[in-house]
């Protein structure tokens, strides 16, 4: 079995006029995307045993922490990690990671390396020594259509967005920077989450690259979701830079009627993976 050279790096960016509360109706385990390596291992092989050992250890760790990385002690090298949103209770992380692991056999059966991104966590394993290595390649983006008029001042929004994203970059910078940061301006709130294996400098660089890429690739586009109970519309831009940092960027407002079609583009590292509907990329 050859090395999969499976590289994934993750980035999200969210804008919201509200804070990011934990809502009972939010699907924190909702599927976002999966990436699978082309090389596969043989059933019953020592590599399969190492993968199963890593996934079991990650599953056990999720009940007590929002980040961990593990390397197989066996002669067949495999490493794995998971990262959950640090602002959520550990119980949410535990549920999300268990869900991610359960999806692997369907999404990436027998893959030598794989990564699964759910809404509040991601999990990755492989034999390509990805731990501690920054990667700012674009993995996935979902910019969507422009938001409908109304609910906010269109002329003010670009400046608010740029200020909120700029606050994220400043907050992630050493020496005060950490893995999880929030910035906001006016209607807009932004959140960033770096993976725990990045240094403060690496996190700051990843967030900076992510912010610049979002502005270039998504401009002021957004996608839409409607909460049927409250008729609350959440508009957002989504960009994925592998599994090293994430930025969430939401603009939230109220509207009675509204429908948008998403425009999506997958980066080269997702070939062989699957999109939100389970279609092979």
Automatic annotation (TrEMBL):
Q: This chain belongs to which protein, by name? A: Cysteine-rich repeat secretory protein 60-like protein
Major place of localization?
other
Q: Where in the cell is it found?
A: Cell junction, Plasmodesma; Cell membrane
Q: Which InterPro entries match?
A: Cell2Cell_Antifungal, GNK2, GNK2_sf
The answer, when asked if Disulfide bond is one of the entry's keywords, is yes
* Signal peptide (UniProt feature, chain positions): 1-24
Gene3D superfamilies with a match to the protein in the record = Gnk2 domain, C-X8-C-X2-C motif (3.30.430.20)
The family database entries (PROSITE patterns) matched by this protein are listed as:
GNK2
Membrane protein topology class: Single-pass type I membrane protein
Q: An example Gene Ontology cellular component term from the record?
A: plasmodesma
Q: Which residue numbers delimit the Gnk2-homologous domain? A: 29-130, 138-241
Q: Which family does it belong to?
A: Belongs to the cysteine-rich repeat secretory protein family. Plasmodesmata-located proteins (PDLD) subfamily.
